[in-house]
Amino acid sequence: MNIIDREELTSIKRRVDQGTEDQRKSVKEIISAVRNQGDTALYHYTETFDGVSLHSLKVQPEEIEAAYQALDGEFVEILQEAADNIRQFHEKQTSTSWFDTSTDGTILGQKITPIESAGVYVPGGTAAYPSSVFMNIIPAQVAGVTNIYMVTPPGKDGKVPDGVLLAAHILGIDHIYKVGGAQAIAALAYGTETIPTVDKITGPGNIFVALAKREVFGDVDIDMIAGPSEIAILADETAVAGEVASDLLSQAEHDARSSSLLITTCRSLAEEVKQEIETQLANLPRKAIARASIEKFGMIILCRHLDEALETVNEIAPEHLEVVTKDPFQQLGKIKHAGAIFLGPYSSEPVGDYFAGPNHVLPTNGTARFSSPLNVDDFVKKSSVISYSEEALQKNADKIARFARLEGLEAHARAVEMRKERWK
Q1: Of these residues, 276, 320, 322, 349, which one is catalytic?
Q2: Which of 100, 173, 231, 296 meets the CB 3.0–4.6 Å disulfide criterion with 168?
């Protein structure tokens, strides 16, 4: 892991993956096939890409019950407690419709309406992600979405991981389908004989999932095009090197393209963390992935003072930001861009990933400059409400008509002036 001085940092390497031409072409072909062939295409692609021939796309109740029985009671309690924490956090995000009445009788307001249906993509492959179930479905439920459908790729045995099924069961989700990849996104966007069309699709996935979400956006809404995971740690001399190194590796083990950055004012900490990274990598189960990430996208940035370090943080706009300094709350007001901010030595990033309550679906690749974590507002629509009174229109009709004519829209002007006939 290289250590560089802040002056040497010319730019942060973004990892936006637009896919290859062949990948984009493949995704378009898959989407077209699903739109035209429905379930037949889903069965075909599941056999082709996942290596399993299914008799049914939908997870059956007995499969959910078997998953529940297969897991020990303590794990069930942990998942339930995590779900409760996440729900309590998101319940604080809810907003309500409002109306404002003027003395002239005009009523203006905003009506909050939940979207009717949402589709959640839960990744599969080499790992199971019950946390993704919670983070995508709970804010939708809190928002009031009544129809929620979950898709996830099956394993070679044709099953969905027990932890994923249990997480869905805890949330009361029973519309679960064994389909992954671009074909799953197409099914949610356009519907098949088995899978209904939804209004919004959320959840992370591989490059084919990301490209498919980009392709269907506009026909349905999506949460974001997420890139590889990333963490930046702002630390001073009070930080413990072993803890910092372990947090950096917690992101590096996600993906060979994940990014782990330490931004510090302390050279001795930088040296210790670099050594700790090597020590901890030696016995990490996913060390090949973590090492590839650290070597290509990991970095330790030495800053002359804390203000320079904070400037660096804001330039990077990291997905996860840990602040491990003498007084982390003192720095909070100076942080402009970060998806999630973890303050103090006990707020390790996995605390937010799994248990504390805030959402772990976060903006990546610098998009924290203009976007937010997945939240309840992502699952509602806000409609403006206008009830203009006769008195208000009498007062403002000429102004509105003049404004319309300034833009060259005569019919707009006449539509308002037509009402003036009432007052003659």
Answers
A1: 320
A2: 173
DSSP state of 60: P
Instruction: Please state, as a whole number, how many other Cβ atoms lie within 10 Å of the Cβ of residue 377.
Output: 15
> Do 256 and 283 form a contact (C-beta atoms < 8 A)?
no
CB burial of 48-71 (b: ≥16 within 10 Å; e: otherwise) equals: ebbeeebeebbbeeebbeebeeee
Class of domain 21-222: alpha beta
Q: Which of 319, 322, 349, 360 does the annotation list as catalytic?
A: 319
CATH topology of domain 3-13+227-356: Rossmann fold (3.40.50)
Confidence category of residue 423, pLDDT binned at 50, 70, 90 = confident
Can 311 be counted among the known catalytic residues? no
CB 188 within 8 A of CB 182: no
User: CA 169, CA 119: separation in Å to the nearest integer?
Assistant: 16
Kindly tell me the sign of the dihedral angle through the C-alpha atoms of 272, 273, 278, 284: positive
Residue type, 357: G
Going by the DSSP 8-state scheme, the letter that residue 217 receives in this structure is B
* Domain extents in the chain: 3-13+227-356, 21-222, 389-423
Running DSSP on this structure, what letter comes out for residue 71?
A: S
Provide the pairing of β-strand 147-152 with 299-302.
unpaired
CB atoms within 10 A of CB 236: 19
How far is it, in rounded angstroms, from Cα 136 to Cα 119?
Answer: 9
Mean of per-residue pLDDT scores for the chain = 94
Separation of alpha carbons 420 and 390, rounded Å: 10
Residue 304 banded pLDDT, cuts 50, 70, 90: very high
Adjacency order of strands within the sheet including 107-114: 98-101, 107-114, 380-387
Cβ atoms of 321 and 248 closer than 8 Å: no
- Provide the angle, in degrees to the nearest 10, between the axes of the packed helices 162-170 and 61-70: 110
How would residue 15 be classed by pLDDT, with cut points 50, 70 and 90? low
Give the pLDDT confidence of 311-359 residue by residue, as tens digits.
Answer: 999 999 999 999 999 999 999 999 999 999 999 999 999 999 999 999 9
Q: What is the pLDDT of residues 391-400, one digit of tens each?
A: 999 999 999 9
The question of whether 360 is a catalytic residue gets the answer no
Q: Which structure tokens are listed for 297?
A: 């996208």
CA distances 357 to 74, 206, 372, Å, are: 19, 25, 15
Tabulate helix, strand, coil % of the chain (nearest 5). Answer: 50, 15, 35
Look at residues 232, 230, 239, 227 and name the one whose alpha carbon lies nearest to residue 267: 239
